[in-house]
Every structure is written in C-alpha cells, then in structure tokens.
Amino acid sequence: MIRVAVSGYKGKMGHEVVKTVLREADLELVAVLDKDPTEKNINELTEFSELNVPVYAELDKLLNEINPEVVVDFTMPSVAYSNTKQIIQHGARAVVGTTGFTSEQIKELQTLSSEKKVGSLIAPNFAVGAVLMMQFAEKAAEYFPNVEIIELHHDKKLDAPSGTAVKTAEMMAKTREKIKQGANGEVESIQGARGADYEGMRIHSVRLPGLVAHQEVIFGDVGQGLTIRHDSYDRISFMSGVALAIRKTAEYDTLIYGLENIL
C-alpha cells in the first residue's frame, strides 16, 4: 500500500483526490490537510463518517507525525512552491496539480529533488486528453507557426493564463518558427485585447461560472485553419492521471514537469 496524504482536501480537486485514493486498492489515505480546518478527523464529515483519517492545519506537523510516502497538493499558487519544497525536503514524493510555478521555481525544485533522490511530479493538467492536446499542438506548430491559445476555466481559478496554456505554449515554442503574429503597427484600442504574448503567440484567458477546464489551440494559414480542443466537463477526468503519478513517481529520483513525461 502507498501511504498518501492530500493537501487542500476541501477544495473541489482535493475532494476528488480523496475519493480517488479511497477507491484505489493499492493506495491508503493516511492524512489530509486544510488551511483552517474545523474538524480534527475526516470522519466528522458525513460523507466520510466511516473513516479514521486525521486532519491537519500545518504541513510540517503532518509530515513529521504521519510520514506519508506521497503528498498530493491541490492548494493555491501562493503556497504551492513552499509546500512542494517542504514535502521534498522531508523525503516524501510530491504530486502537484496546483499551478502558478515560475520556470525558476521548477528548476530549483528539480535540483532539490535530485539532491534528495526523491521522485516528484508537477503537472499543469492531469487529464490524459489534455496531455494529448498539448502534444498534438506541439507537432502542428512545426507547420502552422501562426497560433493562438484560448483557455477557459471556472471563475474561481486564481492564476491566468492557466498552467496548461503556458505549458502548451512552451511545448509549441520548441518546434514553432519564431515569428511575431498580427499586423505591423497593430494597436490595442483597449489594453489587453490581444491577450498575453508568449514568444509571439497570444494566450487568452476566459473565466466564467459553469466552466471546469477547457482549451482551444487555433492555428491559421493561407486558406486553411486547424483547431485542437480539449474539454474537461468533470474533475474526475483528472483522477486517472493523479493515480498514475502517485504510483509512477516511485520510479524516479528527480522532479518531472508535465504528465506527458511519465506516460
């Protein structure tokens, strides 16, 4: 059995992770973490009344008292880096779906993970379909350098653009001809109308209630266009990737960035 703790268990994603760990025969839920819990055990919640799993407010106390093998983190961008660093320093494996990491932070965590010889994973998106969408976009960018990304998420998402959109742009930049899109002398009559600029590519963020996680990568060329789209209609779409990461990180001794790198 793999001993798993879930950080951010009261969030919508964290709640799904808890249910996933409980479903999987080789995973054991040993602790959960919340910023300001009102309960001391998860069995105080009606849905989990038959369980006996302690609730923690402090990550360091959880790590020291429970000593989990894996901590799955779906919290907030403001604490994701410090949480991941603390988990790896303790010697546990971090599986992180929280977004908002800078490239410098990821490099620092990869260095720390290698020093500790602890396998971990940061993934902007755990849905296999989204990973395929990013890989298809990377291939298409070799032939269609004029491309824009539209990512659409629920209105409670704190970071923009999404980690998935940034990761997609990073992957396309590897194969795409470096050109600046749009007309020379292009003027925004309202600042930001053309979206964020990543190496000449534009990224647009939509935030609306009712959405979960959606992304379109739109390519254009003379006389033709190509659109690659992925939709997550329910957060359960991410859970097969989370379960895979919990298991697969044991095979590595460094931090991996992107689910596609362990598929």
TrEMBL record:
PROSITE patterns: DAPB. One of its GO terms (biological process) is lysine biosynthetic process via diaminopimelate. (S)-2,3,4,5-tetrahydrodipicolinate binds at residues 154, 163-164. Gene3D superfamilies: Dihydrodipicolinate Reductase, domain 2, NAD(P)-binding Rossmann-like Domain. Its EC number is 1.17.1.8. Pfam families: DapB_C, DapB_N. It is found in: Cytoplasm. Keywords: Amino-acid biosynthesis, Cytoplasm, Diaminopimelate biosynthesis, Lysine biosynthesis, NAD, NADP, Oxidoreductase. SUPFAM superfamilies: Glyceraldehyde-3-phosphate dehydrogenase-like, C-terminal domain, NAD(P)-binding Rossmann-fold domains. One of its GO terms (cellular component) is cytosol. GO terms for molecular function: 4-hydroxy-tetrahydrodipicolinate reductase; NAD binding; NADP binding; oxidoreductase activity, acting on CH or CH2 groups, NAD or NADP as acceptor. It comes from the Bacteria. It catalyses: (S)-2,3,4,5-tetrahydrodipicolinate + NAD(+) + H2O = (2S,4S)-4-hydroxy-2,3,4,5-tetrahydrodipicolinate + NADH + H(+); (S)-2,3,4,5-tetrahydrodipicolinate + NADP(+) + H2O = (2S,4S)-4-hydroxy-2,3,4,5-tetrahydrodipicolinate + NADPH + H(+). Residues 129-263 form the Dihydrodipicolinate reductase C-terminal domain. InterPro entries: DapB_C (IPR022663), DapB_N (IPR000846), DapB_N_CS (IPR022664), DHDPR_bac (IPR023940), NAD(P)-bd_dom_sf (IPR036291). NAD(+) binds at residues 8-13, 97-99, 123-126. The active site is at 153 (proton donor/acceptor), 157 (proton donor). HAMAP family: DapB (MF_00102). Catalyzes the conversion of 4-hydroxy-tetrahydrodipicolinate (HTPA) to tetrahydrodipicolinate. Belongs to the DapB family. Homotetramer. This is 4-hydroxy-tetrahydrodipicolinate reductase. The gene is dapB.
